[in-house]
Amino acid sequence: ARLVVLVSGSGTNLQALLDAIAADPDGYGARIVAVGADREGIAGLERAERAGLPTFVCRVQDHPTREAWDAALAEAVAGYEPDLVVSAGFMKIVGKAFLARFGGRTVNTHPALLPSFPGAHAVRDALASGVKVTGCTVHFVDEGVDTGPVIAQGVVEVRDEDDESALHERIKEVERQLLVEVVGRLARHGYRIEGRKVRIQ
Ligand code: GRF
């Protein structure tokens, strides 16, 4: 399967996918054909370039409207003819134009146990809420914010001494493994989305 991965930051989830594919290029069942970002100058793009991958940047401020940006992102992604799009720390919400083309085959990874703590501050919100366990979720992207059908989740305990970055780092250790495992399974076995349920063949 052909993957396009979208990033906005350090790209350690992208790196986990790159490493898993490099370790077993034939067995993994997928390869990354391009990496896209919503901003320049991030480690995620450097990781892609180091791996010799094509990259593209689609910045909101370069477009007259949010809808125009969404359409441009869809166009850029479509150019690489992906089977699956992986949002790995991509910090923008895609819209109708993007979902018209890639809805049902775009997965996102989120550092909380959805539907708890959606949005851009999941780890901070979990800490503030006093929960004893949190975790990460890989889900299909729909028109909402972190609301699409859940594919897999991983649980991470919250420790008394945790601050946001310590807890997020511990979540990311689980998240990277979960994402690698889920993307490989979707790519190798195919899947069906039935309402809120995801069936992997
Ligand atoms: C991940 O925890 C992702 O779920 C969240 O931001 C983090 C991105 O990490 N949206 P990285 O860029 O993959 O290192």
TrEMBL record:
It comes from the Bacteria. It catalyses: N(1)-(5-phospho-beta-D-ribosyl)glycinamide + (6R)-10-formyltetrahydrofolate = N(2)-formyl-N(1)-(5-phospho-beta-D-ribosyl)glycinamide + (6S)-5,6,7,8-tetrahydrofolate + H(+). GO terms for biological process: 'de novo' IMP biosynthetic process. N(1)-(5-phospho-beta-D-ribosyl)glycinamide binds at residues 11-13. (6R)-10-formyltetrahydrofolate binds at residues 66, 91-94, 108. The keyword Transferase applies. PROSITE patterns: GART. Belongs to the GART family. NCBIfam families: PurN (TIGR00639). This is Phosphoribosylglycinamide formyltransferase. It comes from Streptomyces morookaense. The gene is purN.
